[in-house]
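About this split. The held-out portion is used to measure sequence recovery: a designer receives only the structure tokens and must propose an amino acid at every position. Recovery is the fraction of positions where the proposal matches the reference. Here is one held-out target exactly as it appears in the evaluation file.
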């Protein structure tokens, strides 16, 4: 017998749909007046939603958007949120590459979080990895100047690839030096995967980059390099 999935949410349903995002925009979807400042934070691949919930709870002035491909995870987190008193979270159940490209304007996001993206360890599957130069370029454009991109992984060769991708992005600067990443991230709540890997004694690495330049300044730098 097939199991029926309960799709309706009793109470506040904080899921949003791609068409709504395009039509209404985030201010409206978060219930903010059109001219009110908005501080967008985005958790990509939010899994069980614990990290995103904590981000929203710690600072109610943030507008937290969760993006997750798994329909069931979106539904579960939406059901949990409907029973909470949080009003500053919205969930978008789509592919992250689409969301970053289509759902956010340039220079509009304070921070992006990508915690433990699927590592696709087999060489023949590596092209499916989420963190690749194209996505990072789109993310860096969406960040406000001074905004942050945080990425965590437990897979050493993925960490290497992430490091090179971040290094090569013209708008980003890695905050930690000289290794480019932190061995831990004390000030933030651990994610479910982080707790699992820590329990197994698997080391995790945490990247923190900052959007250092405006898009215009980066173009100017490029033009000067080409001219000289
Ligand atoms: C390894 S889990 C990590 C979950 C959570 N961030 C954590 O640290 O506990 C990776 C999550 O990313 C989601 N995911 C994978 N590819 C995605 C994509 N292209 N767009 C959005 N979510 C994706 C998966 O469904 C899964 O929930």
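Reference sequence for scoring:
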């Amino acid at each position: 017998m097939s199991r029926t999935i309960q799709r309706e949410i009793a109470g506040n349903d904080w899921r949003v749909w791609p068409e709504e995002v395009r039509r209404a925009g985030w201010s409206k979807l978060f219930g903010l007046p059109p001219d009110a400042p908005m501080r967008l934070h985005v958790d990509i691949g939010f899994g069980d939603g614990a990290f995103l919930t904590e981000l929203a709870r710690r600072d109610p002035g943030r507008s937290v958007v969760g993006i997750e491909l798994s329909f069931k995870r979106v539904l579960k987190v939406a059901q949990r949120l409907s029973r909470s008193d949080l009003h500053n979270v919205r969930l978008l159940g789509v592919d992250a590459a689409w969301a970053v490209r289509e759902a956010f304007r340039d220079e509009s996001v304070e921070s992006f979080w990508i915690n433990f993206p699927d590592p696709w360890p087999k060489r023949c599957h590596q092209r499916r990895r989420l963190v690749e130069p194209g996505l990072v370029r789109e993310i860096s454009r969406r960040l406000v100047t001074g905004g942050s991109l945080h990425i965590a992984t437990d897979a050493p060769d993925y960490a290497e690839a992430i490091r090179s991708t971040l290094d090569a992005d013209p708008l980003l600067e890695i905050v930690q030096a000289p290794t480019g990443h932190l061995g831990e991230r004390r000030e933030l709540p651990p994610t479910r995967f982080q707790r699992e890997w820590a329990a197994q004694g698997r080391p995790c690495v945490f990247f923190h980059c900052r959007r250092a330049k405006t898009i215009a300044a980066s173009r100017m730098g490029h033009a000067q390099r080409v001219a000289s």
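Annotator remark: The first helix runs from residue 18 to 24.
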